[in-house]
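# nightly structure sweep
# worker-07 picked up a monomer target from the shared queue
# config: single-sequence mode, recycle default, output format = structure tokens
# input follows
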Amino acid sequence: DQIKFWRINMTKEIDFVISTSLNEGKAYEAKMKCSGLKKSALRSFSEHYPTYPLEIITYDHEVGCKWVLNL
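# output follows
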């Protein structure tokens, strides 16, 4: 498995993309706070790679923070 990042322009990127096989893998976006999350980047990635589950990794325990793995 290789760890890469994904970017389509200077404002839309995903931090970690791990390909496990052809057209399959996992993706992770790392943020200190949920308020800094760019949902347009998440949507764009999911449109391009619908078979890659996308998770957010954060230290933030903010109420209303969705799709988050709190550390």
